[in-house]
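Notes from hallway chat w/ T.B., transcribed later so I don't forget. T.B. wanted the structure written out for a chain they're using in a teaching module, and asked if we could keep both sequence and structure tokens in one place. Agreed to drop them here.
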Amino acid sequence: MSRGIKVAAILVVVLGAAAAVVLGVFQIRSIDVRGNERYLAEQIRDDLIYDFKTRNTLYFAWKYRSATPTADAPYLKSVQAVMLSPTSVRIEVKESQLVGRVQYENSNVYFDAEGVVQEITDTIYAGLPLVSGVEIEKPLLYQKLVTGNTSVLRTMLNITQLLIKNEMIPDSVTFDANQNMILRIGSITVLLGQDEYLEEKIANLVSIYPQIASDSGTLHMEGFTGRNEAITFQSDSEAAQNQETESADSPAEPSGETQAGGQETGDTSAEGTQAAGDSLAGEGASGSQEAAAPEEGADGQAAEAPAQEEAAPEEAAPEEAPQEETSGAPFMVFDSSGTLRYDARVSNGQVVDSYGNPIPGCSVDENGNCVDAYWNVIDPATGQLAQ
């Protein structure tokens, strides 16, 4: 046997032995899965290690060497592997983030930020809004949701992500026939309207909600654009009282009886009008006499008096401004009509708007805090609810 053949034979033996070592020794026997929350480590392991090649430690570490998604486990946004020893590896996984759920045939269909179905299950995960009023076709796992209106799907993905980002998770998000959005958070109904200025609406909702959370009613944000439009909260108790008041003030049958005695009512009204007229006439006459009095003075001094009296209020007006002691930045309050006011300040022991007009239904307590019409106690210095 020639020397060259001997060398080749030795190389083959060496390579075969090395391959046997690699294939025999570098076998995954232990895998440490980190970063998983919804999915079990066993499921992830079985989906990633499924044949002879992926059981090899060296090949597995090379295949998943960078944090990238994989078709082997489409529910994972990324997988990254590190070889710890010839028989063990560690993987860091990142699951696809769920942003909401819809219901289809009594099952919960969870979708991610791209609208891809990630789970179809009976389980209800906390912290994810339920979307209703959107018709979907039969959902397929790891496929994008199919709806009859792509703009509704886009809005659904937008609103659910904004709610999660702002940690404002409602019980449900409902789309009506006109694609108006309605949020229900406990006993509060929020009318968001169309897919316009959603970021501004949600940001203001986050600020407003703590002030109305203990109440029940409807918050109107349909026309809000973030430009200081009024946001009105209608309390259920207030609405019920208004209904009772309207019913009591507008009885149908008694009005007919009043007409029957209309002669007497008409006489009374006439007398009242005449009496008022006499009073106004008397005042007018008196005024005429006072106005004529200065003309009787020959020296004209009496005629100058009215001019001095008229000028007096103009001189006193500027003195009012320095007396105001107004708190710093404006804060939000609800007035007696249920309207949210953005320009509230405390001035001279009163809650006033930016023009200095008192805001009805609001007062200042003994601690200097503002108490609005819904009994929210607000610290004027911070604009937050007082602790």
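Follow-up for T.B.: The chain is about 35% helix and 25% strand. Might be a good example for the class.
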